[in-house]
Amino acid sequence: MDIVIIGTGNTATVLGRKLKAAGHKIIQVFGRDAKAASALAYELETESANYWSVVNRNAHIYLLAVSDIAIEEVAKEIQLPNKAIIHTAGAVSKEILKDSSDHYGVLYPLQSLKKESSYLPETPILIDASDDETLMLLEIVGKSISDSISLATDTQRLKLHLAAVFCNNFVNHMYVLMEEYCKKEGLDFQLLLPLIQETAQRIQTIPPSKSQTGPAKRHDVSTIEKHLALLEKYPDLKALYQLLTQSIQHHN
Amino acid sequence: MDIVIIGTGNTATVLGRKLKAAGHKIIQVFGRDAKAASALAYELETESANYWSVVNRNAHIYLLAVSDIAIEEVAKEIQLPNKAIIHTAGAVSKEILKDSSDHYGVLYPLQSLKKESSYLPETPILIDASDDETLMLLEIVGKSISDSISLATDTQRLKLHLAAVFCNNFVNHMYVLMEEYCKKEGLDFQLLLPLIQETAQRIQTIPPSKSQTGPAKRHDVSTIEKHLALLEKYPDLKALYQLLTQSIQHHN
User: Fold this and answer.
1) pTM of the model
2) Burial B37-67 (b: 16+ CB within 10 A, else e)
3) Which terminal residue of chain A, N or C, has fewer Cβ atoms less than 10 Å from its own Cβ?
4) ipTM of the complex, rounded to two decimals
């Protein structure tokens, strides 16, 4: 498939790499930042553009891998009737693209993509489209870069995006808080890395509800009180500890 | 080293396996539950005991791998002067053992250990002891089963135990909440597993503070509002979402 990638960030870069590796031809990278666009174009062995007037009109798919806010701006600027215009966002309706083409849709990678990463992580893809033809196109493209392709409506995609916030953003924030706590207390945060790895590893095969352990789950008041005493000087951590302990106990 | 293991739960079992694999001799497994004790003894190719009167008196180390509450009960029952009595708990002082022997200490595995697991996970060990001789003994035993041995006082160990609650118990609870949310909304929780894996994988090499992404971090009010609207019917999730979003924004 011939593809124009619009955007130069993490999603544009990692999807670009995956698409190229799957044998698709990236015929152009468009980016307003000329330097970033030519850097990504160089990596994907193609040409770059940074004016709308020179966007290649011969692709099968125009992949808008830009920030949520930029999707709307770009959609207003480009008119590509008969071409498939696809965005990659979890929390944006596909209808935002309806004035740019008769064929539009979404290809959302349910993964945290970082261009600095040296490997291409396993990435479930959620697709949706304005019509069957575009949906079939996305199914073919999706299958070429992932073993997991699912149909998801705007609402279903938004709900999974919300779940991703809990499973990635909020989880990573726990790590941030503990990295900071360890630093303040003169402890080595690195000691926690094997535990963090094991926690994620275990739920790959065992449902999380069967893996819950710890003082909250055991209603171990003595340990909970020792922890809360340590958190006296960290009111924000203490509030979180209390809310999460309560929440675990409500799920017992 | 000749070791008596007291306890038959997850920690007793996994440490028993690690110690045996490292070439130590488990000379007895003690457990009040005779069936559990003989099952573990069978696996570790040794004998079991379930009365204090028949506990083997010839070991170098007596490893108390029992629940926090049981440590105190056991300590009251056993007197083993000149033997090293060691507990394995994160949140219990070593001094709880001071009346049982002149040589006591702690060997705390900073990992979530499950006897059902088919592999032995990488496990940092924190040690502490009443005297240099016992400490040296624990250092030798610790090094035989782990590449990461650190000295940690009662307070340091309790602080790392608290950090482990955030990085394991609270993180796993996020997964529990989302498993439940997906089920209620008719979505497939399995789709989130690669993201969960990648989140834990990434911080093995990149500090979590550099990996934080998402609507809270970006102050993306539009997406946050869409998420909160979805959570109207889940007040507990909504409260957590709001507190964690605030907490992330305080760390920007």
Assistant:
1) 0.96
2) bbbbbeebebebbbeeeebeeebbbbbbbbe
3) C
4) 0.96
